[in-house]
Design goal:
This protein has about 200 residues and is α/β, with parallel strands linked by helices. It has helices at about 5-15, 30-40, 55-65, 115-125, 145-160; strands at about 20-25, 45-50, 75, 95-100, 130-140, 165-170, 180-185.
């Protein structure tokens, strides 16, 4: 079976993650991505996980405790738009994931927004290392979802191909607007040294 957007986001992350990488879960929710990332970067790496709802933090903390993954995870009760306040200057980040929209079985009014998502994405791109990847899973069936998808399409299409490879992954024959996955990969930096 072809992987859906969520499954493929983890496949693309697993390809590049090692046990000492620093990574960001921009939308913690029920902790599925946080737990996945913490497993991949343990024991030497670090996960920064953000959410603006206390219930998301409580659920994720519980799951990390059960799996013995609290050591390498920093749980942050703040919006991902404030990411820059939590990273050291020039801190190398290997990967990030945004699972956009609202928390399932929760308040559908509390959603990620184009402005704050873009802010977080820009900070993350500044810290992303060569071969690093950012995954964004966009749901566009709910109120506000289309605007966020439009922002992502516009933003991603404008990223220069000399610096980034950008993928848009989507089933085009499925009902109920399945999520669309974006993957932004930073190209390897090649430095040409002048011979004297
Ligand atoms: N990745 C999650 C998981 O594995 O369960 C699902 C995330 S859910 C689709 C989206 C989450 O984004 C919600 O929990 C919501 O509270 C959170 N959110 C909304 N605005 C946010 C913001 N500005 N910063 C961080 N999280 C935000």
């Amino acid at each position: 079976m072809i992987e859906n957007a969520l499954q493929f986001s983890h496949t693309l992350l697993a390809e590049v993650l090692t046990d000492h990488d620093h990574v960001v879960d921009a939308t913690m929710g029920n902790g599925n991505d946080t737990v996945f990332l913490a497993n991949k970067v343990q024991p030497h790496g670090k996960v920064y996980a953000f959410d603006v709802q206390k219930q998301a933090l409580d659920k994720t903390k519980q799951r990390l405790l059960e799996d013995g993954l609290t050591e390498q995870t920093k749980i942050i009760f703040d919006g991902h738009e404030n990411l820059k306040n939590y990273l050291a200057e020039n801190e190398p980040i290997k990967a990030g994931i945004f699972n956009l929209g609202y928390l399932p079985k929760s308040d559908k009014q509390l959603i990620t927004t184009p402005t704050t998502t873009k802010q977080a994405l820009e900070t993350l791109l500044n810290h992303l290392v060569s071969k690093g990847r950012i995954l964004l899973v966009s749901y566009y069936g709910h109120a506000g979802g289309k605007e966020e998808l439009t922002m992502l399409d516009n933003y991603c299409q404008k990223l220069p191909q000399e610096q980034y490879n950008v993928l848009r992954y989507q089933f085009i024959n499925q009902k109920n607007r399945p999520p669309i996955l974006f993957c932004i990969e930073k190209n390897v930096t090649i430095i040409f040294l002048k011979s004297s």
